[in-house]
Backbone:
């Protein structure tokens, strides 16, 4: 298989050279994961689907060459830099058609615009920042019988917006009669089952920040991180979330790679308990809110594959 993959072009389909292909239930599961995340690395698909790494890579290889998946050309830079890197996959039109036929998945839930020049490097890296986090969160929740991850497509939609590509889009009016649109990078919820059997749900609006947007500006008519958070603050104050999601509460999860930027945003919004600012790969604040967290305690954790961690119980209102 390795030799065959090396001989075939990475970004040009060669179905005849790739070999015979028969669609399987595992292929359908792969397509479903790709549709959920829009763009996702093969390393996450291997973990999400399970089974043999080589077999999953083989199916990805066939799904691409037979037109079910795409490999965005924006990732070409990764290979020019050298080293071993995971291939990034998006949904192709044939894969979208298969999901529509086999799972009755609405086309508005899918995005197969990943070919050619439609996906630039910045969009690719931003989308992968989100899918990296969500895939790791899904795998974590699978190990937790008391916590269930609910993706936005499975949440109640605002009235009249159930069949739109971005059902969770809304506008708010900031001071000075400035109307601002809000479109989270990801919407999801965590259902937590307490010891008494009661299930509580917390909704999350996820925002991924790669440092390309100014943190703040004098004029809020211009885009910046703080304008985005003020829009969520207005959403919270006006209880718009109750109409959008029938949700009593929500939290904004900011993934910020730069330590200085994280501290700046935390300082500006430290009095807002609904805002959580974290490093992209850090699940601890989410776990702490649902009853568990990781701490360094000198033993290898086989579940999360960190060099050292131990699970400890924390209170429902534990500080982050």
Residues:
């Amino acid at each position: 298989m390795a030799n065959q993959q090396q001989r075939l072009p990475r970004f040009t389909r060669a179905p005849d050279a790739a070999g015979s292909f028969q669609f399987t239930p595992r292929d359908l599961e792969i397509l479903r994961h790709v549709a959920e995340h829009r763009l996702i690395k093969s390393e996450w698909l291997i973990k999400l689907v399970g089974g043999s790494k080589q077999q999953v890579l083989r199916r990805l290889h066939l799904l691409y060459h037979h037109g079910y998946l795409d490999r965005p050309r924006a990732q070409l830079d990764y290979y020019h830099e050298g080293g071993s890197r995971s291939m990034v996959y998006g949904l192709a039109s044939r894969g979208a058609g298969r999901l529509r036929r086999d799972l009755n998945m609405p086309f508005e839930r899918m995005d197969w615009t990943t070919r050619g020049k439609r996906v630039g490097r910045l969009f690719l890296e931003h989308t992968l920042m989100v899918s990296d986090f969500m895939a790791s969160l899904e795998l974590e929740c699978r190990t937790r019988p008391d916590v269930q991850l609910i993706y936005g497509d499975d949440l109640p939609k605002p009235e009249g917006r159930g069949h739109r590509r971005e059902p969770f889009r809304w506008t708010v009016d900031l001071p000075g009669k400035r109307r601002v649109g809000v479109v989270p990078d990801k919407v999801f919820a965590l259902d937590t089952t307490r010891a008494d059997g009661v299930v509580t749900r917390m909704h999350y609006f996820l925002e991924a920040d790669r440092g390309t947007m100014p943190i703040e500006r004098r004029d809020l008519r211009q885009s910046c991180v703080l304008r985005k958070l003020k829009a969520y603050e207005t959403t919270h104050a006006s209880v718009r979330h109750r109409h959008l999601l029938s949700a009593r509460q929500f939290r904004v999860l900011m993934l910020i790679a730069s330590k200085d930027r994280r501290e700046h945003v935390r300082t500006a919004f430290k009095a807002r308990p609904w805002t959580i600012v974290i490093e992209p790969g850090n699940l601890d604040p989410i776990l702490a809110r649902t009853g568990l967290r990781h701490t360094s305690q000198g033993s290898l954790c086989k579940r999360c594959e960190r060099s050292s961690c131990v699970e400890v119980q924390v209170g429902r209102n534990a500080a982050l």
